Amino acid sequence: MRRILVIGAAGQIGSELVPELRKKYGNDNVIATGRKTPLPDEVKENGPVIYLDALEKILLSKVLFEYEIDTIFHMASILSAVGEKMPQAAWNININGLINVLEASRAYGIKTLIWPSSIAAFGPTTPRENTPNTTILEPTTMYGISKVAGELLCEYYYHKYQLDVRSIRLPGIISSETLPGGGTTDYAVEIFYETIRNKQYTCFLREDTVLPMMYMPDCNKALIDLLEADNSKLKRRVYNITGMSFSAGEIASEIKKHFKEFTIDYKPDFRQEIADSWPKSIDDTLARKEWGWEPMYNLESMTKDMIEKLSKRL
After folding, report:
1. 260 vs 195: CA distance, rounded Å
2. Tell me: the pLDDT tens digits for 231-241?
3. Which of 67, 143, 156, 193 is catalytic?
4. What distance in Å separates the CA atoms of residue 290 and residue 55, rounded to the nearest whole number?
5. 3-state secondary structure of 114
6. Residue 103: what pLDDT?
7. pLDDT per residue over 154-202, tens digit each?
8. Is 125 in the same domain as 54?
């Protein structure tokens, strides 16, 4: 049985990943960590929770030793939109935090380290349709720059120190449980909350803006599937994955099937330029071939599930 540390368990992904990991590996074997953001009740009440800042190297090493950790999910990160407002902080947390985790993992013989990259690693010079796994990486945001640097660090530590570090380039994540945390794809979550509360939404991207997306259950599945994959079958450290691609207008049309009175208008802001530098669709053939990746949700089934869950809660 694994002993798993989840760094950044209060984030959009971490807060839902922890319960899924505990279902599979046992409550006491998954240690959730937080820093400033409060952890959800489900995380706090059903297993170990500790304070941890990935920038504190001594504390990180102490935690790995005392809790006998052999597996790490390093989820702590400043996302794209917030990162453009605080680029130096984004670099510090995203890169220096990662280096600390890589070094501590090497020193304490961590079995497997999972670190998520992002489609933000791509840029305006990357092919935007069916973006391949190996391609040009010239991002124009600090978040994207930190992800490219992080991918290279993961490759380096694997080949230099044989540290089994694995990564996936996540698209926009849509969650029914946790509010978004400052990303360019946040509209795809906000639109559901505003639909149920007000029957109206003002989108910060153009109607025709198409981006790759993924529903949170698929995100959790991908992270756990990658952890469990046979390393001998993995031919790289970083994989493209995706669930679906749609425009802001297309998700609005899907929502109108459930709420005929729903209205939307479009007022693009600084995030439009970021979105325009990212792919419209992703080629995840290698993830499907090498470790069996297969999403469960499309736009229609995701929309139906989101509306059902949020309607009950809100």
Report:
1. 11
2. 999 999 999 99
3. 143
4. 33
5. strand
6. 98
7. 999 999 999 999 999 999 999 998 877 788 999 999 999 999 999 999 9
8. yes
- Cα distance between residue 120 and residue 110, in whole Å: 27
Residues linked to residue 266 through DSSP beta bridges, in sequence order: 203
Q: How far apart are CA 191 and CA 117, in angstroms?
A: 25
Place of tokens 């449980």: 177
Residues 312, 200: Cα–Cα separation, whole Å: 19
Phi/psi of residue 230, each to 5°?
-70, 120
Q: Classify the C-alpha dihedral 107-109-114-118 as positive or negative.
A: positive
Rounded-to-integer distance, Cα 279 and Cα 122, Å: 7
Q: Is residue 145 part of a domain?
A: yes
> Is residue 156 among the annotated active site residues?
no
Distance CA 4, CA 49 (A): 12
Residues 6+ apart with CB under 8 A from 232: none
DSSP 16-62: HHHHHHHHHH-GGGEEEEESSSPPPHHHHHSS-EEE--TT-HHHHHH
Quick one: tokens of 162?
Answer: 């044989």
From the list 151, 209, 149, 221, the residue with the least C-alpha distance to 185 is: 209
Say if 290 falls within a structural domain.
no
At 122, list the tokens. 């791509």
State whether 163 and 22 are in the same domain.
yes
Sorted by sequence, the CB contacts under 8 Å of residue 222 that are 6+ apart come out as 168, 214, 241, 287, 293, 295
CATH number at residue 258: 3.90.25.10
Angle at 275 between CA 270 and CA 276, to 5 degrees: 100
Q: Is residue 283 part of a domain?
A: no
